[in-house]
Every structure is written in C-alpha cells, then in structure tokens.
Design goal:
The complex is a heterodimer of chains A (676) and B (180). Chain A has 676 residues and is mainly beta. Helices cover 6% and strands 59% of the residues of chain A. In chain A, strand 9 and strand 10 form a beta hairpin. Classes of the chains: A mainly beta (676), B alpha/beta (180).
C-alpha cells in the first residue's frame, strides 16, 4: 500500500523531466535543407534520404495515446495471426489461452472476450455487442493485406461510441490499387502446419482496382500443462475481395467482402444442468461460418471538407460449448467534416445499427437464455470541433449521443488539448467519459457457475442469473502525454493516465436455499448480475524508436498498470478485488530490426510480461526471431521462431471454463512468398 | 534468475546485430526534400515545345495534384526563381481539369487510384508528369522518383516524353534509368 503513490510520483517525475529536457534537442525538419537549393542533379542523387512513414506525420496533432503497427512491422514480426501481431503494441495485453483463443485487452480487465476494447476492420466493428467481446479466432484478415493497425489506448467513445472504453484497435487494409498483381504464399511450422494464400489484383476500369484472395490454414492441437494433447486445433478456409474506384476527382468508392469457414475444437470445464456430478471436462466441436460486406463512399471538397457514407453487414453463425449463436449486424454511418471560419474544423456524424442475435443452448448444459432471439436498435450521433487556439495549440471538444436497447440514452463527451511546441514535438492532455453498454449475458442469461462441497448439505450449486437492472459501465479518464522526434534517429512517446470506473458489473450473492436433486440435498447459492462495483486505475506507457545505424533499428517499450477494483458500499461481490490480478502490472519489450545485407533481414524481439497473481501464472519472457531473405524482386523466404527461450509456458487462464488453458510452446515457421 | 539469463541472450543478439551494421547514421534528410529538389530542377533539363507557352512572359507552372507531400520545401525552392523569361510558379490543384497551364505536374500518391484516367486526360498535353509510386511509369507517366537503398533514383519513360514533344537533355538522360 505504502509505495503506490510513490510509483505514481516517479512516473510523473520522469515525465516532467522529459518534457523539460527534450525540446533542447529537437531537430527542425520543415524548411529545405541547405544542400537542396542549388544542388546539381548528381548531388541530389547522392544525398542519403530517410522515408518517414505516412503514419508518423499526423500523430503530432493527436491528443490521444496512439501506437501504429505498420505493414513492415507485421511482415518482420514473423507472426501469422493478428493476435500475435498485437503483441508489438506497447500497453496491449495479449495472452494466449489455447491454440485458437486469446485474451486481449488494453489497460486491464483482461479476460476471454474482454469487453472494454473496441475492434474495427476498415471502420467495421467486429466487437459483438450482444455479448461484449471479440471472437479473435474469427478475425482473420490476411496479414499481407494489412496497411496498418492503429492501437488507441484509452477511451474513444466520443467518436466511436459505446464499448470504446479502454481502447480501440483499428485494422486498416490496403487499398486495392496497392495490391495489384499476383501473390502466392505458403508456410508450414510446428504450430501452424499449413497456411497458404493465393491472391490476384488488377485494374478495374480506368480509375479503379480490385483484388480477390483465398486462404487455407490449419493449426495443430496444443498441449496441456500435464503433457497431454489438447483438442483445440482448427482448420479453415476463407475468401474475400476488395475493389476501390476513383469515381470522379472528388469521389471514391470502396467495396469489400469476406467469407470464413473454420472448424475446430476446445476442451471445456462445463457445468451441466443435472444430475450430479454437475461438472465435467468435455471436448467440444467449435464451428464458425462468418461473412461481411462493406461499401464506403467518400466525397471530398476542395477546402478539406468532405462527406462519407458507409454501410456494412456482418453475419456470423457459431457453435461452441453448449451454445449456438446466429448474429447479424447491419450498420449505416454518415459523416461530414467542414471548416467553419479559419479556426474550427468540425466533424459530425450519425449512425444506425440493428443487431439481431439468435442464441440456442444445448439442453444438456446448464446455460439457458430467457429470450433466445433479441433484436436491438442503436441510434447515435456525434459532433467534434477541432479549434485552433493560436499557432500551435489545438483544442478538440466533442461528444457522442446514443440510444441503445439496454440502457436507453447515453452520452460520451471528451476534450483534448495539444500543444505543438515544435514540428514533431508535442504535449497533450485529455479528459473523457466513456461507457460500456450491458449485453444479454448480463440481462437474460441463467447458468450454473460452479459446484462445491457444502458441509452439512452435501453439495452446493452456485447459479448465476442475469438482471434487467444492470446499467452501463462508466469511465472517467484523464491522460497526458508527450511525443517527440528528439533527433534524426530517435523518437519517444510517453503517456500517463488515471481512470475512474463506476457501475462496473458485479455478481451479487442472494440468499442460499436448500432443494433436492434426484434424492440428494442440494444447497443453491444464487448470484445475480448487478452494477455495484467501482475502480481506479493508473499507469504509464512509454516507447521509443531508435535508428542506431543506417541498417539497424531498435524499438523499446514498456507499460505499467495499477488497478484497484472494489465493491460499492451496497455491493457484496468479494471476488472483485481479484480482477486486477488478471492483468500484468508491468510489460517490457524491445524489438530489433537489422538489415544484414540488402536482401537479408534479421529481426528479434523480446517481451517480458509480469505475473498474473489471480491465476497463479508467473511472469514470462518471450524471445521471437525471424530471418528473411529476398531472392530478387519477387520472392521472399523467411524462417521465424517464437518463444525460443522456454519450451513451453502458460499465458492465461479462462475462468469461465469454456476454454481449458494449454501451454504456449516454442514454435518455428517457414514461409515462401512469391509476387508476380 | 531465468529472466536475467533471457535478457542476456537478447543483449547478445543485439550486440551481434550492432557488429554487422556498425556504420553510423549519416546526415540523412527527408525523402520529400530531395524529391522537391528534383521536381524544381527538371525545368532546366527539359525543353517544352513553343506552343506550351501562350505568351513569352507566361509563368512556368509547377503543379502538385492531390495531397502536397513536400510541406513548404517545394514552394521555398520555387519562390523568386525564373526560367529565362518565365517566372517559376507553384500551383496546388485538386482536379486534373485544372492542369491546363501546368508544365511540370507532380501527381501525388493520394491520386494513385486515378493515375490512368489522369494520365489519359493529359495525353495530348506537353506536361512533364512526375510520380513517386511503383507503377507510375507503367501507367504512362513521364518521370518517376523512387527511393532505392536510401537514395532517390529517377526513371524516365522515353516514349511518353517523345509523344508529348518534350525534349530531355542528354545530361539528364545519362543519369536516369530509361524505361521503354
């Protein structure tokens, strides 16, 4: 207890020292370097240049904690799924549960289907609001087609609405004009026994392009801590397309669609309806068919104003332990931005979403929904104004207003201030309110959570019931950050945050009662979902990019999180204090990218994740390496290894029992990519 | 302490990386500053047909179509300069239909979806078009600026230049990669 304020004080001290020291070293990058004006062609040809990725430029005006994973980062990570790619971003908690399931969160509250991070693919939400979470095994964009992944730590509700509470993960795929030509890639390894992609892109009319792709993958079963083979492998096929057209010089149209079918398994600790024994460990089939289609039209006007209209439809059909889910979401979104006078850049938008969720449970299992079919309408509008105060200070104010089917009207205001002290050198601060809307698992679900011996009664059965009284979780978040290109080859980004949560979901015990099951006495301990918890988190994230030599880049990063979740005075959920122990207090990483030769790349990354005390999982380090070799312009070979330092380690325990945890093993993967 | 041992392994890997690449970062500057240098220099190495100028004092127009990636660099290089009787002038345009008086046209990568229709509509004009994306030459552009091994390289589409009656000096041709 004693050293908690001390840690916060240390973070603040480091932060303020950086803010004072760094401006002195700032290099100017805007006006023409003296050697350009009057240089001969030959001289120009001999100047060594750096290519600043497009992503880095707008950040100096952003009043939020953002990390961008570039296409280059993804290629050089050696990973073959999006979940592992997200380990690159400092402050993101990525923990693997079994061969196909992950717990992914930002700033705490990690769990299978963690519910406070919104995930978007090209503006299409893949966060399933009817159960508040993301099925990561269904997020299967070919990594070759990702342009970048923007990871926003902290609330994004002002623009993105409900559920963008602790962060937003925005996966942006490449424009079809950038993927013209053929692409064949094939890989095999000790975990992913097959992964193949075939893609073709070409011109579509005088000002357009398209691509189509197909992919097959097969992931092997992993291993339980006792050395037994698990039943969690999967295989699947997917296909997709994207077309982009410049309809006029002011209008662009983008159309895309995907279809995924995968089959796999899981081992669950399931609680059955009856008879005793209620709890059994069973292997289940896991089947998923999902598809989506999206169209976006953008219109730009000469003065920077513009409008966009986006329509999409997500369809999902999924069976897993004891439940079959059929979920459809249709979304229509319109946005308009314009300059009002010389100081205001205003953007507003309206959004409508209808979600139809049809869930059927297997009667053998205890899980039961009081209303199997539920249709919800969401109406939302937002407005945001970026105000230029003087030459280098920007203030952004805005709010989202929503009406959802669970809690009715909600609002999510936010304010950000950015002081751009110099080019590529800024300080920012923000305050925001965000919400997570309840879902049907908290309102109309009933299930048996656990069975324990109860002295005097024989057996106690812990039951859980949803309650319509559950209200939206609220966050009040305060952040400040600093980012700077300190010198040509060195940049740094620091963020500190303080977050207050209200009406967090809790499980309140009711009065136990005795009943009988097949002649045996049974003590029922009823728990009901409620909103009687609150919390306070604080922490910091820091990362840097250092170009040590022309061919060697090192990127260290670290994050620190202190969570405290407690029951409200009227609440009685004694397990809440353990929530904090599901997230690491510290994470540290360092990535290194080396060009050994012009066509030979060596990439290493080391990540340390501190222990998860609630789950008895000790801290672990992951060492990943990749060697990539380009043969001419069109062929690339790579060999990568992950978790090289230890044969196996545990990362996360799913306390719902749906997915029994297996160990994350040392793996190798080889891949060949041919572009033509 | 297994953690320390793993850190040690990683430190070793980093050190080996350093040995392989230990050539210090040179005085590298942003690619778009150097590209702006090329865009503003080409005027001196290309000859436009007389009909490209309506009057002897008509300004020589360097245009940027789409998002200007040069910041203030290009306008700084162009300001106050002249090519013979013609004062250099920088124009930022958002539609190819406004490219009528342009002599040099840099087409930003923000317009890459429309390259073919833009270049097709310029076909009859003596415009020295410049791009900086992989397939700009293949789509019919005249010059392309590519970064290769940390240096800016020029590709010239000789056939496109000839069709537009643009005469490129032999000094420039000797420095570039000629395509087609």
């Amino acid at each position: 207890m004693k050293n908690k304020p001390c840690n916060a004080a240390r973070v603040l001290a480091v932060w303020s020292v950086l803010a004072i020291v760094a401006p002195v070293h700032t290099a100017s990058a805007q006006s023409a370097a003296p050697q350009i004006a009057g240089a001969s062609l030959e001289e120009l040809m001999n100047i060594e240049v750096t290519s600043v990725a497009k992503k880095e430029q707008p950040l100096s005006k952003t009043g939020a904690a953002v990390f961008v994973i570039s296409a280059e980062d993804i290629r050089r990570s050696g990973s073959n799924n999006i979940a592992d790619v997200l380990r690159i971003a400092p402050g993101v908690e990525v923990a693997q549960i079994d061969a196909n399931q992950w717990a992914i969160s930002i700033r705490g509250f990690n769990s299978l289907y963690s519910n406070k991070v919104l995930v978007l693919i090209d503006g299409r939400s893949v966060y399933v609001s009817s159960f508040s979470g993301v099925f990561w095994d269904q997020i299967s964009v070919p990594l070759e087609n990702i342009e970048r992944i923007e990871v926003i730590r902290g609330p994004g509700g002002t623009v993105w609405g409900a559920n963008a509470v602790n962060g937003v993960i925005n996966i942006i795929t490449k424009n079809a004009v950038d993927t013209k030509g053929g692409l064949l890639s094939a890989g095999t390894g000790s975990r992913q026994s097959a992964d193949g992609l075939a893609q073709y892109g070409a011109d579509a009319g005088a000002s357009g392009a398209f691509r189509v792709f197909g992919r097959y993958f097969n992931t092997d079963n992993s291993v339980f801590p006792d050395g037994q083979r698990a039943f969690d492998g999967s295989h699947g096929a997917q296909g997709g397309f994207r077309g982009d057209w410049g309809l006029t010089s002011r209008d662009t149209l983008s159309v895309q669609g995907d279809l995924l079918d995968s089959r796999g398994g899981s081992t669950s600790t399931a609680v059955f309806a009856e008879p005793p024994p209620f709890v059994m460990t069973v292997n289940n089939a896991l089947a998923n068919t999902s598809g989506d289609v999206l169209a976006r039209w953008e219109h730009t006007l000469a003065n920077g104003s513009g409008a966009s209209l986006q329509l999409y439809d997500n369809e999902m059909d999924r069976s897993q332990t004891g439940i079959h889910i059929n979920n459809n979401a249709f979304d229509a979104d319109f946005e308009y931005r314009f300059a009002a006078g010389s100081r205001h850049d205003i953007v507003w938008g309206v959004d409508y979403r209808v979600t139809r969720d049809d869930e059927h449970t297997d009667t053998a299992y205890s899980l039961h929904l009081t209303t199997p079919l539920r249709t919800d309408n969401l109406f939302a509008a937002f407005m945001q104004d970026e105000i230029r105060l003087g030459k280098s200070v920007f203030l952004t104010v805005g709010s989202k207003f929503e009406h959802n089917g669970y809690t009715g009207f909600e609002y999510e205001p936010g304010v950000q201030a950015v002081w751009k002290m110099k080019e590529r050198h800024s300080v920012w601060a923000s305050a925001a309110r965000a919400i997570r809307q309840p879902n049907r698992s908290y309102t109309d679900t009933e299930y048996n959570l656990a069975v324990t011996p109860a002295p005097g009664f024989g057996t106690a059965l812990v039951t859980v019931s949803g309650s319509p009284a559950v209200i939206a979780e609220r966050l009040f978040d305060y952040e400040t950050g600093y980012r700077s290109q300190i010198s040509q080859g060195f940049s740094i980004d620091v963020t500190a945050f303080l977050s207050f949560y209200q009406h967090l979901q809790s499980l309140e015990p009711g009065s136990p009662y005795v009943t009988e099951s097949q002649g045996y006495p049974l003590l029922i301990v009823p728990l009901t979902f409620a909103s009687l918890a609150h919390g306070r988190d604080y922490g910091a994230e820091l990362f840097a990019n250092w170009r040590v030599t022309r061919r060697w880049k090192v990127s260290p990063g670290m994050s620190m999180l202190r969570m405290s979740i407690l029951p409200d005075p009227s609440g009685r959920d004694a397990t809440l204090a353990e929530t904090a122990g599901n997230s690491p207090r510290q994470q540290f990483e360092i990535r290194s990218k080396v060009d050994l030769r012009r066509n030979l790349e060596l990439d290493n990354s080391f990540k340390y994740v501190s222990s998860l005390p609630t789950q008895n999982i000790p801290g672990y380090g992951r060492l990943d390496m990749r060697l990539g070799w380009r043969l001419g312009e069109f062929v690339e070979l790579s060999v990568s290894g992950q978790n090289l330092t230890a044969r196996r380690h545990l990362e996360f325990l799913d306390d719902s029992g749906l997915f029994l945890q297996t160990e994350v093993a040392r793996t190798v993967f080889g891949k060949i990519t041919w572009r033509f | 302490m297994p953690f320390l041992r793993k850190s040690g392994v990683f430190a070793g890997v980093l050190f080996v990386s350093f040995l392989f690449t230990s050539k210090a970062v040179g005085q590298a500057i942003d690619e778009y500053q150097v590209k702006a240098g090329f865009v503003s220099s080409f005027a001196r190495f290309v000859e436009w047909p007389p009909e490209a100028f309506k009057s002897p004092h008509e300004p020589f127009a360097i245009c940027v179509l789409g998002q200007n990636p040069f910041g203030q660099t290009l306008s700084g290089l162009v300001a106050g300069k002249a090519l013979g009787e013609h004062a250099l002038e920088l124009r930022e345009i958002s539609d190819v239909r406004a490219a009528g008086g342009c002599h040099i046209l840099f087409i930003s990568s923000s317009e890459r979806l429309r390259f073919r229709s833009i270049l097709a509509s310029l076909k009859a004009q003596s415009v020295f078009s410049i791009g900086d994306t992989n397939d700009f030459i293949a789509e019919g552009g005249v010059a392309n600026l590519r970064v290769e091994n940390g240096r800016v390289r020029i590709e010239i589409n000789a056939r496109a230049a000839k069709e537009k009656n643009l005469r490129i000096s032999s000094r420039l041709m000797s420095l570039v990669k000629v395509v087609k």
